[in-house]
Request: fold
Amino acid sequence: MRRIFYTALPQTVINRLVFVLRHSSDSMDNKIDENSKLPQNEGLPNDSDMLANYKKLKAELIQAKNHTDELNKNILYSAAEADNFRKESLKSIQSAKQFAVTEFAKDMLETADNLEKVNSLCESYRKENNDIPRSIQSILNGLELSHKVVLQVFERQGVERFETKIGDKFSSHHHNQLFTTPSSPEFPPNTITKIVKNGYQMCDTLLRASEVGVSEAPEN
Reply:
């Protein structure tokens, strides 16, 4: 059987230990009391503050969205204006180009008419003369070639002559009446009896109406 030996401590040491234990216990109790007095939600916003912040953020979000919508609207409006301006500019350029070509073609019609008359004279001269000098032959060839070149330019630009024939019905849109002739069984009233100049059109634009003579019924 073991024996336990207890060593007797001096009374001064025992008193010191008791004092330390009591002092430590009182300090812990005081700290617990102080901690229990602290508010549970110290540093955290309450419900009213959170609601106020929510409303403020919501208002700012709505304002930002409205501002963004306004910017998008302005951007779309500016883009539409720019597109309309581009289309109008292209249309104006095309119209100006068409007008310039049309006016040039009108000015060239008289040249084409004169070359056509000269070409007819050249053909008649060739038929009437079998032995044509080389120098005259070169001039005739040059005149005929000039007429062909003008017609080729007209074709590239969409200028074409619409055929008007003697005996056709007169049309105020395609024909320009220069004079009248008495009607007959061959030429009933309102019939073309003479063609002075042929008409030309460019695409759907009338450059010049055919200048014609028209039969007219005699007055009773």
Observations:
- The radius of gyration is 56 Å.
